[in-house]
Design goal:
mainly beta; 6-stranded antiparallel beta barrel; 15 strands; serine-type endopeptidase activity
């Protein structure tokens, strides 16, 4: 099986590079274009270009994946589906989970502290973090994810075109039970820090790492995970993709503690 984490490795952005435990975690092949105000919690992490996604937790904290960590501070863009517009705020600190394992791609939790606050408006808003629970969702529960990652294939129809999307894209997907996820990824660790989702014909891809996986509670979306890994070709072909599991009490509390929630 071929997987890699969804961080994008490209010359225009000094990204950490794609992990290869063989997870791909890219993003939105087969996704729809978003409109301003539809996903106001989405963030784009940028150096000289987009390399990862994130979710606004508060005016000064953003949720992401640990494997998106950079060697120096970078910029967070919010408030516009065009990642060349909107608000740009420099980072002050990147907090990766102390037990993050880049080889197994587990405990892939990250929180960013911003150097100045986001100005909230109709297009930039925080998303509520889901309440903690050790219970898993029923198989095939509807979810939604979004990002600025790779969005089309090369002419051979197999490899993704190594170009991130300038515009935000989104995808309706479905929760995949631990048992069903393990049946596809027998060599991948699916522990309490990981959850899986998938929908036929579409997939997250490189550049989507750290972006939101959300679940609707009483008519409002809440954050349940950050994009972590996927098939190396970004074509699921039935293979589920992986997100961090923000439901699980230990990791939910860790995230709250870092972000002061």
């Amino acid at each position: 099986m071929m997987l890699k984490s969804a961080v994008i490795a490209m010359a225009s952005a000094a990204a950490p590079g794609i992990k290869t435990v063989d997870t791909t975690s890219p993003f939105c092949i087969g996704c729809e274009l978003a409109v301003n105000g539809q996903i106001p919690w989405q963030a784009s992490l940028q150096t000289s270009g987009h390399f990862c996604g994130g979710s606004i937790l508060s005016s000064t904290f953003v949720n992401t994946a640990a494997h998106c960590k950079q060697s120096s501070n970078f910029t967070v863009q919010v408030g516009d589906v065009d990642n060349r517009s909107g608000q740009r705020i420099t980072t002050a600190q990147f907090i990766a989970h102390p037990r993050y394992n880049g080889s197994l791609i587990i405990n892939d939790f990250g929180v960013i502290r911003l150097s100045s606050p986001i100005t909230f408006n109709d297009f930039a808003q925080p998303i509520a973090l889901i309440a903690p629970s050790a219970e898993r969702l029923p198989d095939r529960t509807p979810l939604m994810t979004s990002g600025f990652g790779y969005y089309q294939y090369q002419s051979n129809g197999v490899l993704p075109d190594r170009q991130t999307s300038r515009y935000l894209r989104w995808l309706d997907t479905e929760y995949v039970s631990v048992a069903r996820c393990k049946s596809f990824w027998s060599g991948q660790t699916i522990d309490n820090s990981v959850q899986c989702a998938d929908v036929g014909g579409s997939s997250i891809c490189s550049g989507d790492s750290g972006g939101p996986l959300v679940y609707k509670v009483n008519g409002e979306y809440q954050l349940i995970g950050a994009t972590s890994w996927a098939h190396v070709y970004c074509n699921s072909n039935g293979y589920p993709q992986g997100w961090s599991n923000l439901w699980y009490p230990e990791f939910n509390q860790w995230t709250r503690d870092q972000a002061g929630l």
